[in-house]
Amino acid sequence: MGELRKRLLLWSGTEQVIWIDIDSDTALPEPISVAELERLLMERELESIADPFEDKVLREVEAGSPDQLKRDEAWAMLADYVHDPQLFVRRHRGTIVGSIIERHGVTKQTVYRLLRRYWQRGMCRNALLPDYLNSGARGKRRKPNRTKLGRPRVVMAGKGRNVTLDIERIFRRVIEERLLKEKHTSIPDAYASVLNLLRAVQPELPTSELPTLGQFRYFYGREYHFTDTLPRRMSAVEFAKDFRPLNSTSTTETLGPGYRYQIDATIADIYLVSEHNRSLIVGRPVVYMVIDVFSRMVVGMYVGFEGPSWGSAMVALANTVADKVEFCRKSGVEIDASDWPVKGLPDVVLADKGELNGTKVEAFSQAFGVRIENAPARRGDAKGIVERYFRTLQERFKPYASGVVEDTTSRKRGGHDYRLDASLTLHEFTKIIIAGILHHNNFHTLSKYDRAAGMPGDLPAIPVMLWKWGLANLTGRLRTPPEKLVLINLLPHESATVSELGIRLFGCFYSCPEAIREGWFHRGQGRRPTGVTVAYDPRTADYIYLRPSNSLKDYWVCELADRSRRFRGMTFWDVWILSREERRSDVNAASEALTERGKLLEKIESIVAQAENASPLKTGISKKDLGTQIRVNKQQEKRQERQKTAFKPEKAKQVKPAEVIPLRGMKQEDYAFPDLSDLIFKEEEDD
Prior knowledge:
The chain has 21 helices and 16 strands. 21% of the residues are buried.
């Protein structure tokens, strides 16, 4: 079997073609008949292969580089002749080559070398590029010998040494044990461990012969690609969240607007004050956002002090089915229905694993046909759309609001604490958030939005525009069950107690006609359950919703009772704050009362001890005589007490009257007020 040769067709005619051997350094164009070529193809003695010079020819050449200068110089030499078919004929080729030599002053070997390169590499201008790309044997390992590879040392003492196979084994061991793990050391520390091992193995090795830190770094970068080392140097969650290549986008998971929502919460970087007392700083609010994945529309929100949980997430989801005009009006913002045209439940909700994960979610999902998807733990990138909106949201109000969180609470010792600048209430902060949402939905242009197939070019990437286009052209749809029913079932639920005073929740008492008819509040003979399940809206304490059965359709509206009238008009957050203050005051007062009670006991014990010491022994008295004596003694004590405690008005001071001298020796009568105590207060004698 003969040697396999690779040939390239240069020219084709009706009877013959011209080709050239691309592997030979002395090859020249050779003719072959068309019939012979067809026979070789039919008998499969010829087969097509990929161009071996493709990588060398199809590359970009930098302007002014040696590659470009050499290529253009060679092309200027051959450009006027390479398209002449006579160049393929041997007897004419010599004449043409002679003309090139005479015109450009080059040697015959140079002309034939350039023509051969031009023919063998595809007959294009880049075929004349020099092979500088192969210079230096880039990517190939050098074989170390006695001569030190690399640059000679200039500053460091000694000549150094090459990295041998023994040293490479030590390098690999240290890299595997210290660098390729989650809690890894630094490269200099790993290099220090290498030196320790080398000294232990070869203690006689001089310092100048030790491998350098640069050699260790070079070996690490050459043998361990970062795509392999990166996942091993961090946790799987961190790699997936921050470094994993992104193969798709969130929009590809949606069928249209209203199909998939993302929900998440953040703690706003601002401190707020209390609604009923602006001198009280109540902390940082929690902001929940629900965003439609397809259009990036904000479809629901929640702002309050309830931490990220089922309760606050449900309030945000309830807002997706609320009438946005009425919702904004309650917050003091007037809008048109077209400014926020969203109302209904989606098909899928993507949330954090902890919040929408439990029996309450399953009941809601089954009742309204909403599938709940939970992102992996600590994977905020799974909800990238809503996460990115949080950053935009905070950037809008932070430069203008007071009480905004700074890097430190005090820039220097004795400096001002930014928390003391808090001035916004929850109601005012909610108005700011609503204004930001309206701007985002109606005017914000999504610069990196990946458009769906079929979107017109004149459709701006504004959330409300994308929302309307998707509803009109795609399968997006919103299911709108009765608003009140959805709201009640989405509200947080809690266990409440029942007594004759009412239904008690968070220290507030409630009542409803249904419970009164059932006799829950009758005293003595009342028939009531010990506990019930109620739904409550954290935004108002005026009403709660009692669940009389397991049916999602049944609920009783309970109103705040007069006993808890002080809580009317408050939110439950205000109720919790006020109740906590009251409990704190009561506890402090009770603690002080216990201290004073100890003093009271000391006084009582002192008085009793003195009385016991002053009382004589009572002996020799029978029980019958003792009872008689007690009754007599009690009457006497009462007379004395009456005389002592009776009200006697003070008499004005008068001049002492003259002495009365009785006439005829008559006895002087007593004109003083008579004592009628015995007559008035006389009690019947005991039998």
